[in-house]
Predict the 3D structure of the following.
Amino acid sequence: MTDCKRISSRDNAFYKSLLRLTSSSRERRDVAQTLLDGPHLLRAWLDSGRFPSHILLSPSALDDTEISRLRAECPNVPCTLLDESLFKQLSELKTPNGLLTLIDIPQPAHTFTPGFALLLEDIQDPGNLGSILRSAAAAGCDAVYLSQGCADAWSPRVLRAAMGGHFVLAINESSNLLDIASHFDGSLLAASLEAETELYDCELRGKIAFAIGNEGAGLSAELQGKAQQRFIIPMPGKVESLNAAAATAVCLFEAARQRR
């Protein structure tokens, strides 16, 4: 197991670069790296067949059995021990669990052709976006395309909410959704309050993609116009709508049910 170096100064250049990663989406894009917070995300990352670039620990993590096991699976990965106060600045958790890992953000293959995809237009809440990615991974989706107006998919909050969903999806940020929709050779579906067809009557067993709109404004008219099938989610209860993450989960798992 690699011995840990120690950082105790906020002026350390490596530590400053880590701080920028936690707060700046531009920094994450520029260096194509991000931080995973906690053992669960590292476990999911390792299960996807990848290794981190660097392991970061607080002193309290040195005696943690689970973290020690994970470190043992990364024998050639550099490790740095951060003073407790420095570590807390990097973690958004109220009670940090003592483990952060630096990873290289996966870059999706340009030649990949999805069979079950999501097109996300201007999803701005990190919690919503993370929940959508988690549902997409659980339902067997293989690709997600995000418009430029979406929240940063690789931010700490989105990563925590998705609980490892990122690592089994081809995530394409800053996508031109109209162009993706025009060239998708399957069926594009979109929810619409004006639709007469219910979601449960749609054919979802072939090559499909759901287009999901902004939390407040919904899906743009231009992207709605690209959909081959519009549908409504029946809601017999006394509410008028679902939030974006809940509506997406309903759509994804109806598709999963049909595609069993």
User: Anything to note?
Assistant: The chain is about 35% helix and 20% strand. The two ends are 43 Å apart (CA to CA). Residues 45 and 252 are 23 Å apart (CA to CA).
